[in-house]
Design goal:
This is 4Fe-4S Mo/W bis-MGD-type domain-containing protein. This protein is an alpha/beta fold. Among the domains are: 213 residues, 3-Layer(aba) Sandwich (Dimethylsulfoxide Reductase, domain 2), CATH 3.40.228; 129 residues, Barwin-like endoglucanases. It has 27 helices and 30 strands. The strands form nine sheets. The chain has a seven-stranded mixed β-sheet, with helices on one face. Strands 25-29-26-28-27-30 form a six-stranded mixed beta barrel. A four-stranded parallel β-sheet has the order 11-10-9-13, with helices on both faces. A hairpin with a 2-residue loop joins β4 and β5. The longest helix has 19 residues. Bound molecules: ligand MGD (2 copies), iron/sulfur cluster (SF4) and molybdenum atom. The site of one ligand MGD has 39 residues, from α5 and α11.
Length: 764
């Protein structure tokens, strides 16, 4: 780019902050918040400056490398593509299509090029052994949305700017900047909530950064949220506080939910949750009696033993108290590229348990098996065993429970390829690494997180820098591999039509697709005066067509969709280019019943799968907690999952990879500040420094995720000198939420003791 200031969206976390990047003499001179960004209005966090560090990082790979007997060797793109396509094809021909496993990591969803290219790529691979970060993250939300609203990515988002009560359970947005709630400047928004007389309540096993700015805070025993939430449901019925408001005529099976909640009195759950019965009742009353209120739950409630139930109950509580689809409550978004409607149109509303994984008999969700069973599928011989593996933008050796076992499993593969720009804990096992261009060398449109933002916005930015010579974008890598794999599958040649199709795609890239989706979307082309004549005709056709006719979705996805009549029009890529700070499409609005995708058009309050899981919850009600510690995770604002520790600016300062333990527990087992503790869990152990305070619930300990860069053979010099240890080395991979298949990343039991050699630190 020429010198000057470039505006774009930071793609690192879900918050969608607008950044203003100034370039001088071809280099980044400064990165600031973009005051004119309609969503973030100037806010950024310390990670934004790492955009520069990532861009300039000498450790970042620029060319394909291949593992040889004596280290890594750079090879040409053509050689690399040939090698990878041939090896994958070979494995598939020899052992069948399921012998190739694929893992897609989190950064894919921040990259519209990858998203567009992934579908054809997965089709070309053709394997059922697909995995992603979803099952270590938001899977319970997807399952709940699918079961209750009929669509896997139709999430209710807190209307945080208009609410008077924000009840936050199992989330720490002050550190994470929000999840399934793209919310730049949460601090400012919470301050505004208080200024208008509103209230923040936090429920968490740790007095987090968010808890510290709350008006009310309650410790909760890890993994017991479903009990708490069920007791709140119980209270609502018991005290006659149920009033679904505008959703009243849309809810189905409320009585089943009432019946299910009968045994869960606040008194019965108090012992397990650690929350007083009267406090539980009061929480339910506050939610019911505050007109504009939102109950929001995230990672802490979804990645635990009852993740599915807890997430379902948190949605139910919002509905029972009339918060769903109301301003100041929980609202569905109306993004400019409406993947919800598009997905429904193309048969992608989602599915669950259509088939089961080979080794552990775990259910698929949307075509993926739980990531916690990846190693089983690699290590267990038999037909369908994974022998070749592809990772795209993921670091499962660190991000998946029982990382050491996965290390071992990856070592035993016949072939592995990683699309990634770092040689890290996972990609070190690859035979070939294909590095994409850096983020600032590609255009950006947030397809996913605009769907979850607290305001409807749209923004597009062209690449800031021209890609370095002889580099490839993620989408180019995936499409090239797809093309070659398809050719090999067809014996070397494709029919002319497909050949032309692939070539056109390679020529155009993903941006023209964005343009088309914007133009045909809710804020797309203006039909102008023609609308007057067109609309009655369309309405008539819609009246006549059967409910499930495919033409209906086509109309739904066109500018003549009546539901979209009131929206601003004229969005296209060109329009977004003319508005480099982004376009404000307005506050979230009620949208029911139109936005529902269930067969009967109703909200399913008591889906069978959830009811069936209640037996397990009931057992938990009567089981006494054991004496072990419960391990939970934590996030820090200067870190992002497993890949940002190579930025010196982000890792500097006090050691952050510590075990937080309550004073009382530390005294009991003889730990002092600065000591090293040995943590044992999942049959393994790690050693790390302790941090003692009273911000954590007694009986609970916390270790942040993201660390563990002390493994051999990685090339991330800064991260290696701030290695830390990996929490996932002491989390078992056979502990899952049995309803959804999500990994239990919070609440596993561990034992702690002082580590003997207190001077040196290492992984035990
Ligand atoms: N114990 C525990 N485990 C957890 C969590 C937890 O809280 N506790 N959190 C879970 C959650 S929420 C998530 S989302 C997962 C994340 O788990 P993963 O998705 O597996 O890990 P990331 O760190 O997001 O992956 C980053 C990888 O992508 C590469 N990368 C970055 N940008 C790009 C790009 O543009 N293109 C390509 N090709 N590669 C890129 C990086 O180099 C790095 O290798 O971890 C989960 N695991
Ligand atoms: N700085 C930073 N920001 C990030 C990320 C990051 O790694 N660093 N990762 C991004 C990603 S991929 C995601 S998915 C989001 C996640 O965003 P959040 O959902 O906000 O995730 P956390 O900050 O881990 O907050 C989870 C909270 O749950 C609590 N908790 C643990 N167990 C339980 C329990 O059993 N019950 C209850 N009620 N609470 C419990 C933890 O103490 C913690 O405070 O953050 C995103 N943003
Ligand atoms: S909160 Fe930080 S990392 Fe997240 S989008 Fe904003 S600037 Fe980027
Ligand atoms: Mo995540």
């Amino acid at each position: 780019m020429e010198n000057g200031t470039h505006f774009r969206t930071c793609h690192l976390c879900e918050a969608l902050c607008g950044v203003a990047i100034t370039v001088k003499d071809g280099r980044i001179d400064s990165i600031k918040g973009d005051e004119n960004d309609p969503l973030s209005q100037g806010h950024i966090c310390p990670k934004a400056t790492a955009l520069q560090d990532l861009h300039e990082d000498p450790d970042r790979l620029r060319r394909p490398i291949r593992k040889t007997g004596d280290g890594w060797q750079e090879i040409s793109w053509d050689e690399a593509f040939d090698l990878v396509a041939n090896r994958l094809h070979q494995v598939r021909s020899q052992h069948g299509r399921n012998s190739i496993g694929v893992y897609l990591g989190n950064p894919n969803v921040h990259n519209h090029g990858s998203l567009v290219a992934t579908m054809p790529f997965l089709r070309a691979i053709g394997s059922q052994n697909r995995f992603s970060a979803t099952s270590n993250d938001q899977l319970p939300h997807m399952l709940t949305s699918l079961e209750m609203f009929g669509h896997q990515i139709l999430f209710p988002i807190p209307d945080i700017d208009h609410t008077d009560l924000f009840m936050c359970i199992g989330a720490n947005p002050m550190a994470s900047n929000g999840s399934l709630m793209s919310v730049p400047d949460i601090r400012g928004r919470l301050k505004a909530l208080k200024q208008r007389g509103g209230k923040l309540i936090v429920i968490d096993p740790r007095r987090t950064e968010t808890a510290k700015v709350a008006d009310e805070f309650h410790f909760i025993r890890p993994g017991s949220d479903a009990l708490l939430l069920m007791a709140m449901v119980h209270t609502l019925f018991d005290e006659d506080l149920v009033d679904p408001g505008p959703a009243e005529r849309l809810v189905k099976d409320i009585d089943l939910l009432r019946l299910a909640s009968v045994p869960y009195t606040p008194d019965a759950v108090s012992h397990r949750t650690g929350i007083e019965p009267e406090t539980i009742r009061e929480l339910a009353r506050q939610l019911a009696q505050t007109r504009k209120a939102a109950l929001y739950s995230r990672m802490g409630t979804s990645t635990q033993a009852f993740g599915g139930l807890a997430t379902w109950l948190s949605y139910c509580l919002n509905i029972l108290t009339g918060k769903l689809d109301t301003v100041g409550g929980m609202l569905f978004t109306q993004p400019a590229i409406d993947l919800v409607t598009l997905g429904a149109m193309s048969g992608q509303k989602g599915h669950f348990d259509k088939r089961r994984s080979r080794v552990r008999d775990l259910p698929e969700f949307a075509g993926e098996y739980p990531a916690s069973t990846m190693a089983d599928e690699m290590l267990t011989p038999g037909e369908g065993q994974i022998r070749a593996f592809v990772t795209v933008a993921g670091n499962p050796v660190l991000s998946n429970p029982n990382g050491r076992r996965l290390d071992k499993a990856l070592e035993g593969l016949d072939f592995m390829v990683s699309v990634d720009y770092y040689l890290n804990e996972t990609t070190r096992h690859a035979d070939v690494i294909l590095p994409p261009t850096a983020a600032l060398e590609r255009s950006h449109y947030d397809l996913i997180f605009n769907m979850f933002a607290v305001r409807n916005v749209a923004k597009f930015s062209d690449a800031l820098f021209k890609p370095a010579d002889d580099t490839r974008h993620d989408w180019q890598i995936l499409i090239e591999l797809t093309h070659r794999l398809e050719r090999l599958r067809k014996g070397g040649r494709l029919p002319l039509r497909s050949e032309l199709g692939w070539r056109t795609f390679k020529q155009l890239g993903p941006d023209p697709i964005l343009d088309m989706l914007l133009r045909t979307g809710p804020y797309g082309a203006n039909t102008g005066p023609a609308r007057k004549f067109l609309q009655p005709a369309v309405d008539l056709v819609m009246d006549i067509l059967p409910e499930r006719h495919p033409l209906r979705s086509l109309v739904r996805l066109s500018p003549v969709n009546r539901e979209w009549n009131g929206l601003a029009k004229g969005l296209s890529l060109a329009a977004l280019r003319d508005n480099p700070h982004g376009v404000d499409l307005g506050a979230l609005q009620p949208s029911l019943p139109n936005r529902l995708f269930t067969r009967d058009g109703l909200i399913q309050m008591a889906p069978r799968r959830f009811l069936q899981d209640l037996g397990r919850l009931h057992e938990a009600l009567s089981t006494d907690p054991d004496g072990d510690f419960r391990l939970i995770g934590r996030r820090h604002v200067r870190s992002n999952n497993y890949w940002m520790h190579n930025s010196r600016r982000l890792v500097k300062g006090k050691e952050r990879c510590t075990l937080i333990i309550h004073q009382q527990d530390a005294d009991r087992i003889g730990l002092k500040a600065g000591d090293m503790a040995e943590v044992q869990g999942g049959g393994q152990q790690i050693v790390l420094p302790v941090e003692i305070n009273e911000d954590i619930m007694p009986g609970v300990v916390s270790i942040p995720h993201g660390w563990g860069h002390d493994r051999e053979g990685i090339r991330q010099s800064v991260a290696q000198s701030h290695a830390g240890t990996s929490i996932n080395d002491v989390l078992a991979d056979d502990q899952i939420d049995h309803l959804s298949g999500t990994s239990v990343l919070n609440g596993q039991s561990v034992s702690i003791k002082a580590w003997q050699a207190k001077t040196s630190r290492q992984s035990a």
